[in-house]
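Page header: ASSEMBLY MODEL / two components / 777 residues total.
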Amino acid sequence: MPVDKTQIIEKELAVVDGIELSADWNRMFEQRTLFDYDLQYMDRITDLDGGESLGWCYQCAQCIPVCPVNTVGDYGPRKIFRKAQTGTNLFEHPDLWQCTTCANCLRVCPKEVNMIDIMPAVREEAVMEGYVPDELQEAFENTFEYGNPLGESPRKRAAWIQETGATVPVMKDIGRAVDILWFVECYPAYHPRGKEASAALARVLGTLGVDFGVLGTEEKCTCDSQRLAGEKGLFEEFAEANIKTLGKYSFNTILVTDPHALNALRKEYPAMGGEYDVVHYTTYLAPRMQELKFTRKLDYRVTFHDPCYLGRHNGEYEAPRQMLAAIPGVEVTEMQRCRENSFCCGGGGGGMWLDGFMSDHVKERLSEQRVKEAVETGADVLAVCCPYEVSRFTDAVKSTGNEGKLVVRDIIELVTEAMG
Amino acid sequence: MRMPSSDILVIGGGPAGIQAARGIADLGYKAIVVEKRDRLGGMPDEAGYAALTPDMRDTGEAIAEMVAPILDNPGVELRFGTTATACTGVAGDFNVTLQKADGAAEDICVGSVIICTGFKHFDPGRETQQYGYYQYDDVITLVDCERMLKAKNFVRPSNGEVPERVCFIQCVGSRDRQIGNEYCSKVCCGVASKEAIEIRQQVPGCRVFVFYIDMRMYGYWENEIYWPAQEKYKVNYVKGIATEVVRKGDKLIVKGEDTTLRRPMEVPMDMVILSVGMEPSEGTEAMAKVFGVKQNKYRFIETIGGALDTVSTTVSGIFAAGACTGPADLEDSTSSGGAAAMKAIACVRKANTQIPA
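Prediction written out in full:
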């Protein structure tokens, strides 16, 4: 991919073909003067369905201080506008893949420049033309082939139930209507930490006597993050399959573990013909916390990270906090960036599958920034409720040298721990 | 003893003067309108504006609507080809000498005077910057552009070809200590954006850029002109005005800084439109002297009440409205014209009560 040529590059050390160059050789001056305003790429973007609002930016720059990526790199919506206006081909530029679609810019944008629409529209074109970072392409291919971005066997999608010893009815086995259809989603079904949280949730649902079932191996990825990363075709194909499967069963409400699935099922599936009452597990459990019997007091100082797709995208800020407040002994302390202004773990919009790519463009991962912020609060537990976050933050705790100071726990795991 | 007159002299038949005369007649007094040209309408008519800012109404149509109530109105006496050359007396009893173009003079008695002599467009030849208005045919002003848009003939003056790319340079002759015009001319951001929309409507293939320091689209101009220009007509706004214009082949090269990218820019354009600001017209300067009213640092007529009284001058009974008091848009001019009519009538009523019959 082409390098951004807007900067004078002065390297402390330049190594060319294994030879260390010293002194003036390290100074590489790029073209400084703008000799043209080539509008072809701006026109191409604003002509796309969803791309229109990029042209509305009037450079107030309110997006920049709230853009998580800009805290670790040189990126932001108003900069994307200027680059497009000055001839940068975003379709083939690394900037295209930096946005995590966290929606913090849209929250503050007076002109409603909507990166949540712009990015998928432009990425879709790039995907069709083959300008996709390899690791993201791999996640797309895994999803296409196996029904999940991790590349795990679709036959093992329900294997976590046996592995963890959880009691979980599978719809095709029970052959009856249920109150709650639990859409487990990929990371809670396959990722080791996700499985633990899933087992915890299954236990709580069982304890509460919830009439529920899961789709088991019939479930496929909702593909919301793939859609936001530009794979609209994949999203539509999988949405159709899921809607067809869901159509076979009777249930009142879909319960999700993953806020990204919440977003897809609640906001995107209706346009495809799938209208459901969808609820995140925190929203469902918060009012029922007093029904649980806790036998242990957790003397934890906990800080909570609002998932972008639960908070800003779907407006739920209270339920996770209510759950934490109901756990005996837990003391909640907030990070500076929380609720509407919460930071981003870096996993959304395809970021989950772009860590290698991003390492060339940012000084550290967003998850690392966030872990440092969590440590600053004096918390010993970073509580989360999005399956992307457990693995991302756990890695970040290690890479920032905070092992032993901070552990990352799904809220549901804290609940079952207190249940004893 | 001579009876004081309750007639009110309105000098200038532009938007402010028309509105003042109409108000005076509507309230049962007599307005004598003195206009040096042979028709009403003021600068929008004289300069041949295509459409008015911000509502984009056809200028001719809008002016005709403004003028209609004072034509054949017994309360309005129109005197064309006429100027005021001398004034004596006090509020309620002024003696003003009017002179026709042929030199014929006549003294009239009026109770109050409203000066509505407006502005002139800044002459970009008087620039400290090098925009080459008198050097390059394809460097024009907002006013030249209005005429071309009105004629539906927006082409490069140098060769008659349809331009593919044009830019506006804002703040030409305004906000400039070296030139002496430290004020913002208030309307140029809106007028440039309005013209940018018209260019995009008339020549859809032509890309338009606006180089600006700050876009000053106050009030509804923001949503009525600026946002549509950017969002619907894809006009490109770039922060940082150009320093100079040079010719290269048959193109003009606009040199400046793209400030938000912090990079110098040298970009080719087919035409450059200078967003020239406002200065007091010759008529405004002359009338200030005839009526002995104080001019401000920028030679506009000084009003003495700040924000609370926008039409009273340093001489009791002499009022000023519209752009003779400083940069004003159409809305300002008609509003202050009305305000001046009210003040002038109050002045003559007071004088008539105080002077015994």
